[in-house]
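dumping this here before i forget
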Amino acid sequence: SSEEATHRWTVTLGILGIAATMVSGELLKRRGIFRIPEAVIGLLVGVAAGGLSEMFESQTMAEDESFDDEFFMVWLLPPIIFAAGYNMNVPAFFDNLGPTMLLAFGGTVLSAAVVGACVYLAGQLGLAYRLSLLASFFFGSLISATDPVTVLAIFKVIGVRDDIFAVIFGESVLNDAVAIVLARTILSFNTPDADISLLTCLQAATVFCSIFIGSMLIGSLGGTLSALLFKGLGLARVDDKVPLEAALCFAFPWSCYYAAEALELSGIVAILFCGIAMATYARPNLSPHARTLTTELFETLAAIAEAFVFNYLGMAFFTFPILSGGQQSPAGGTVWRLALVTMLACFVGRLHAFLLLPLTNALRMRSARRTARELVAAAESDAQHRATSYLEAAQRSLLSTAHAFVVWFSGLRGGVAFAIAAAAYGDHAFSQCGDEGEPRPCDPAVEISPDLAILQATLLIAVFTIVFFGGAIKDVSLACDVLAKPAAEAAEEASSTSSGGLAATAAPGKGLPRTRSMRARWLHINERYIMPQLTVDGAGGGRAGGRLGDAELPSRCTSNCGLLAAQGHAGWATEMVPTKAREGGALCSTLPADAGAGGEGSPAPGGACARGSDGHPPKEHALAIASRLLESDDDSGRDASRGGRRSLGGSDDGLSVEHQRV
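structure:
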């Protein structure tokens, strides 16, 4: 039939739109054009697709292109959120957990309150469309969901500081989940007999916390069970089981998602923490090829979903009654003033970054001073020097006002906010017009309902922030000096702090007294009790891509040549050694601990790990071997598992080592 043919052409158009978005975005990146991010290309492609349905006046095409909030929440958002958790830099995330949690929880609640109050007052003063008190705070909660996909994509290309990336990345992922749960909680009051009082607000806050904690536990449990399964099956020790490993990796996150939804919790929170738990405990139990495959596969699915989301937003201009003049033209016009007032309120609401980040700086320095006092109390020969180095490293890790401005500027709005608004519009959550005391059904022929006004304003704000803020983020990053330091400078800093700075306390038990901080206690419990039970080698996982952190290096590295984790050389190695297939562990495990006569772990003089006068490998050797590891292909992991011999750099400098099972 003609309708079936139209439907198939619409699907074809959507697939080609995703491809066009990704290709155009890649071409722009290659040319260094960051003022037109991929998200903007996606919006334009979506507008073009929606314009075709408008041109041909095809109702079938318009219906197929319409934004389906359930499809978004079930099929588009979960892959994005899970990939964020599975591929995140877990150590950096937990190192900056304080500011991340404050921004995601406290910041979102503050922003929702500020935006809701401003929108309500503006309506009462006649400055914008009038919303009820409940609708205003519902609008404030959903519009507080930031969507920095564009910003993070640019951050990866231009290379910003790890701590800034981790804070914005972690805030954005948790912020979406918090906004969804907060909006659902506010909607629970949208009943005729709802009693809004201090007691009911406290009950709602309790429900909010229970939903978040319960969802987090379900996701963490799913990730833990996956680690136990992979450890028990031992698929990493069997050849040609990579497809099975990858298939099993899909089972747990979506099981957690639907289990949480079935229990009326948050599937988004569950799948996020499932990704974090799997990255930490399950991924180390996978074979090297399976780690690479799952990482890239989940990134691919997330990239497709992100492109589809922006196409979806562009189509919404024609598939929803947003603008006047089309098939879906709203009878009451477009709420431009409400969008403007709300956008200004969002700018004010995001100012919490300038309040919360200094608070985290104060807490971080307080903890650092306490640790320094404990170092001095240890009464070791170099205790004072180590304490001073630790305080200096802590001082360098603080987030300045310029960094807070980047966090404020990165609060784009996007798919999550629009999905919540579209769900409320589809459910007619706020379809009553008139005064709050005398509500009446809205007349769609002459006026706009509150839920449609919220939908219009949300889309207009999302498009504005994506286009203008997303396009200007590179210039802001350069002006605020948040780019990562050059490799040489970072290596020198890492080398100087490895003996007494933050790197030295990354893992308890490395020559420093265990501090009383919650982070240090958790690291101790995790490394001593949890990791050995859940992972094959007890080393655990960390980050999926980028460089290894000092805390992630295998403990054997210290005794085997001291090549990667030796004092003064950890920075050189961690700057260059990639994590996939855990090549660092492969190198350390294959260097014989009794290779030389200089004592335990001392290699033979003149070999690949020849030591300098300081008792450690000279810098040139560390850089040479690390660079060859970086250049080696991914097949080294499989060759290692089969016990074969592989040369890391050729036969001219004696850098050939025998790989054993990692």
